Amino acid sequence: MSAAVGAPGPESVVPTLPQRKDTSASSIDEKHSPSSDDSSVEVHKEEEGVDVVVGIFTGHAEDASLDPAVAAKVRSKLDWHLLPLLFILYTLQFLDKNSIGAGSILGLIQDAHLTTNEYNNLGTAFYAGYIVFVGPHAWLMQRFPIGKYIAFNIFLWSIFIGLQCICHNYGGLFALRFLLGASEGCITSGIMTIISMFYTRVEISQRLGWTFQCNGIAQIVSSFLAYGVAHIGLDSTPKPWKWFMVIITFLSLFTSIIFFWFMPDNPTNARFLTAEDKVNVVQRIKSNQNGIETKVWKRYQFIEALKDPKTWLFFLFAA
């Protein structure tokens, strides 16, 4: 009996209980520790459909409401960095789309030997490409960083605009106009998506209105450009309409570069925001109750949107 309860001797065996693995705090720490593989964590988050801002907002969900002065300061910083890029983009998109109109009065119809119906079909070709690729763009913008994706499409349409200068027939112009519309099909939905990541519902409607007003600015810019180019002379080489296309091409290339470097994909990689600003941005738009961005397509949300009458009202309004 004494041997059983006393100190173990050299030959005695001490019974040991199996150690239970602590899967609560330790496993969580391992998943979120700085030494873990950040890329694998991000992939894991994306596979589960977790919002991209969950990392920066962790620990701040129960914070008090944002001070109005701080919120106004953050909104002002967003406006100064995002709106100029969106205004330039929408102005340029309208210039590209209507470049065929300016080209028609600068000699395009005569040089390409276009009939009236063929010229009208070039306008239709743009919107055909636009409509066909709106759906694929929506899917791709969810899968890829949206700022970089839009910049890539700006680069594409600058090439399609430039290639029109070497077209001398209806078929080539039709194909390029179709591709131009296809590359610009992501712009309106892309702008709406970007604005919704950074602004409240009321602010979204205001800033979308300001952005869409750039169509009018684009008409003014296009008229001045066409007026200036027309003074080159119809007998010049290259022809005036080609000079107009070249100018639009270089403007588009320049815009694609600045958009690639300065347009953030979401609040987490906005370089002009500090860590505190990023938290404040998310805190500001919590009331939207629609998250920021996820990289997983959710079927139930798609079905829910189809059942929502507002979806069909928007569809009928656009149609």
Residue fraction in strands: under 5%
Please tell me what the overall shape is. Answer: globular
Let me know the largest β-sheet. Answer: none
Q: Give the N-to-C terminal Cα separation.
A: 92 Å
Percent helix, as a range, is 55-70%
Class from secondary-structure proportions: mainly alpha
| Number of helical regions | 17
**What is the number of strand segments?**
0
Spell out the helices and strands N to C.
HHHHHHHHHHHHHHHHH
In round numbers, the mean pLDDT is 81
Radius of gyration over C-alpha positions, nearest whole angstrom: 28 Å
Ranges where pLDDT stays below 50 over 5 or more residues in a row are: 1-47
Question: Can you characterise this structure?
Answer:
There is one protein chain. With 319 residues, the chain is an all-alpha fold. 69% of the residues lie in helices and 0% in strands. Helix 5 runs parallel beside helix 12 and helix 8 packs parallel to helix 10. It is globular, with a radius of gyration of 28 Å. The protein starts with a helix and ends with a helix.
